[in-house]
Amino acid sequence: MNRKPFSTLVFSASFLALSAVCGAAFAADIRIDALEVDSPNGKQKVLIKNIEVINTNLTREDITALFSAKGDKKDRFALAARAKFDRMVIPEIVFNGTPGNEGQVIARNYVVVKYDQGKFQSVSLASFGGKIFQKDAGADVEIKSGSIELLDGDFSKMLAAAAKGEDDVANGRLARFAWNGFEVRFPEKLQTGVAMHLVTIGSIIAEGKYDGDMPTRGFATIKDVVFTPGAGTGAAQGLSMFGYDKAQGTFNMDGTYDSAKRSFRLTDLSLSGPASGTLALTGQFGSIGPDAFRGSTNLARIGALLAGDVDSMAIDYKDAGLFEKALVFYAKMNGKDPQAVRTEWAGMVAGVLPMLAGGDASIVKASAALAEFVRSPKNLNISLKGKNGPVKFSDLQAMRDPQAALQKIELTATANR
Questions:
Q1: Could you write out the DSSP letters of every residue in 25-51?
Q2: Which of 39, 176, 376, 402 could form a disulfide with 44 if both were Cys (CB 3.0 to 4.6 A apart)?
Q3: What digits encode the pLDDT tens for the residues 94-141?
């Protein structure tokens, strides 16, 4: 698919993100009826209507420069890094399409509250949506979004570093991000006409808890992601072979960090679908220093992570039809009877895996559980734990031989419990 129509969306998102960390010390109220600026590529026009900035240290010229794509971007970051204001309100921002891919995306009721040199109380957008014509397919890309809200953000260090041209800086802080609904329809040109794909997202919620600058908990959920392919497309045919007319799922993540114990507990990392099942990962990790989260460079953060270790991990799968559909699909593609394939797979995991692992007793037991799951796929749990205490990440990277890995890792598996 030609991605040119999405350039407007990419610029729109970048524009709104930059203006979220813009703004203003308390001296004046500024109102600008209309401001038209160019996109970075110079092909798009953005019309910003009725800008109102309350109690700000910025001038009219500063605000114009802040929203403009012209000039050195470090100067815009520097403006955002020193800006202060009580409130910024923009009722409407119009992003126009490019030549050959005409259309508009309109963002409504953009509001920033209590902005102070990269810190803010809240940033919100009531909605955005519109259509951009895709020339190659001869149809529109249609976008519709619900409200977006960011609460209690601090990106002051990032802005200060970016103003100096430094890209490798520590992450910012955000207490909450909420995106309430999104959908996009996009075309695919077929020999017989045009098919329309649909992607919808129910909501995206992310929350962070902090002790000063140190994160103590991170939570995120992406609910009800649904991809419905257009009729007659390769995507539709591929899904239908598995017995689906659409792909859908929900993603969850939840974890806590204890800086005193230098430990991270992953309580939930899961992907689930109503007609497929749920795959979840949990784990306990240690020896992870604070630099893993607030290191001043990417190298420092990666180094702190690699110095960590794994105490235990568990993978849990609850089937809701996906395994059976995959088995039937494989049997059909290979001209075999599904029950014969089931017997073949069960025999393979029960016999071949222990052989590859050198007859390790734990693998023999785990293979029996895997075979039980293949014969009757309900749920499967696989747990890993260091035999002589936590296993360092660096040691895991060096493991190439399954038998060598089993010298340090205890593996257990249960099925249909």
A1: ---EEEEEEEEEEE-TTSS-EEEEEEE
A2: 39
A3: 998 887 778 999 999 999 999 999 999 999 999 999 999 988 888 999
Dihedral sign computed on CA atoms, order 354, 358, 361, 366: negative
pTM of the model: 0.86
| Cβ burial, residue 197 (10 Å; 0-12/13-18/19+) | middle
Q: Give the count of beta carbons closer than 10 Å to the beta carbon of residue 228.
A: 18
CA quadruple 75, 76, 77, 83: dihedral positive or negative? positive
Q: Which residues are CB-neighbours of 61 under 8 A, at least 6 positions away?
A: none
With 0-12 / 13-18 / 19 or more C-beta atoms within 10 angstroms meaning exposed / middle / buried, residue 128 is buried
If you write DSSP's letter for every residue of 107-138 in order, what string do you get? EEEEEEEEEETTEEEEEEEEEEEEEEEETTTT
Residue-level pLDDT at 258? 94
Residues written for the chain? 417
Is the Cα dihedral 295, 300, 306, 309 positive or negative? negative
Lowest mean pLDDT among 39-53, 257-271, 380-394: 39-53
| DSSP summary character for residue 160 | H
Q: Which two tokens stand for residue 244?
A: 């689906």
Helix (H) or strand (E) holding 348: helix 338-356
| pLDDT one-digit tens code per residue, 30-58 | 999 999 988 766 677 899 999 999 999 99
Beta-sheet pairing, 379-386 with 409-415: antiparallel
SS3 for 228-295 is: ECCCCCHHHHHHHHCCCCCEEEEEEEEEEEECCCCEEEEEEEEEEECCCEEEEEEEEEECCCCHHHHC
Q: CA quadruple 64, 69, 75, 80: dihedral positive or negative?
A: positive
Task: Give the model's confidence band at 14: pLDDT under 50 very low, under 70 low, under 90 confident, else very high.
Answer: very low
Across the chain, mean pLDDT equals 88
pLDDT tens sequence across 154-182 = 999 889 888 888 765 667 899 999 999 99
Q: pLDDT-derived band of residue 243, with 50, 70 and 90 as boundaries?
A: confident
Tokens 């075309």 correspond to: 187
Q: Give 74-80 contacts, CB < 8 A, sequence gap 24+.
A: 74/162, 74/163, 74/164, 74/165, 75/163, 76/18, 76/22, 77/159, 77/162, 77/163, 78/163, 79/22, 80/18, 80/21, 80/22, 80/23, 80/118, 80/159, 80/163
N- to C-terminal Cα distance for the chain? Answer: 45
